[in-house]
Amino acid sequence: MGKSADVNKYPDNGLKEEMNGEKNGAKNGYDRNNRPLLNRSNLRDIIIVVCLISAVLYDLDWVRLVLSGLLMIFGCFFHYVTKGVLIRNVVLCQAGTYSVVRHPYYMANYLIDSSFCLLSGNVYLLLIYPFLFYWSYGPTIRKEESTLASLHNSAFLRYSLDVPQIFPDAYSIRSMKEVVSGFSTQRITRNEISRFMRFWATGFFIVFIHTVKKGHLEKIWPLDPVFFHDHYRALLLLLIAFVLFTASLFFQCKKEPSAVKFE
């Protein structure tokens, strides 16, 4: 199948940036056994644990709740569209979300994790997260861009000069109107849907903790039915979180199918 102008601005074969970090890192001399304690693989897990603890200690107002929901929506949107645009290991993707930033998948992760930080009510966690993000993702981004530069030479140089790295600027934001260019649902796996369900399940569970906290935690155990009768919203939040998490397990597949390739 021939390359389409919708897929690339500068047609070029090679490796795309959202490659498997560990496998390609090993090829570039990256030792998995010597990874720092805080890295891209475990950053979200650590953030979620801290958010759950923070939800007990800090309060959540409706402004942060609304902002968190918006960040989660935008994060999931960019996560979804990016997966549908990415053609792994075949071309240098520069269309769709890749015309807005060079690493839209990582931008989506930033938005989703920031949503959890907002939900926690812990302003200190929200302020420190940008530093944790660059600490964890920085090495991976440098290695990926080094590989892309060696594979695509001048094409990647032009691309890196035209498009910002993680966050859009005043010029690249204009490409938002073409954000779904080159998108295909065939590149969306069941695991992606499963991830979205877990994202939202986590968010609902954090809000559940905030709701329960206001109704006195000591009344929950041993599962006092009077408490849940008086706090039906807490029960509803817990039920939604449970259903989403359980559904995510059914959607998750053991092995993702091979990426769609175009010749």
Summarize the structure.
With 263 residues, the protein is mainly α. The protein is built from nine helices and no strands.
Walk me through this protein's architecture:
- With 263 residues, this protein is mostly helical.
- It has a domain at 21-187: Four Helix Bundle (Hemerythrin (Met), subunit A), CATH 1.20.120.
- It contains nine helices and no strands.
- Helix 3 (62-85) runs antiparallel to helix 4 and helix 4 packs antiparallel against helix 5.
- Mean pLDDT is 79; it is low at 1-30, 217-222 and 257-263.
Query: Globular, elongated, flat, extended or rod-shaped: what is the shape?
Result: globular
Strand content: under 5%
How would a crystallographer describe the biggest sheet?
Answer: none
What is the residue-averaged pLDDT? Answer: 79
Distance N terminus to C terminus? 5 Å
**Number of helices, counting only DSSP H or I runs of 4 residues or more:** 9
Q: Any idea of the CATH class of the domain at 21-187?
A: Mainly Alpha
Tell me which CATH architecture of the domain at 21-187 applies here. Up-down Bundle
Derived structural class? mainly alpha
H-E order: HHHHHHHHH
Tally of extended strands? 0
Helical content band: 55-70%
CATH topology of the domain at 21-187: Four Helix Bundle (Hemerythrin (Met), subunit A)
Uncertain regions spanning at least 5 consecutive residues: 1-30, 217-222, 257-263
Q: Measured on Cα atoms, how large is the radius of gyration?
A: 21 Å
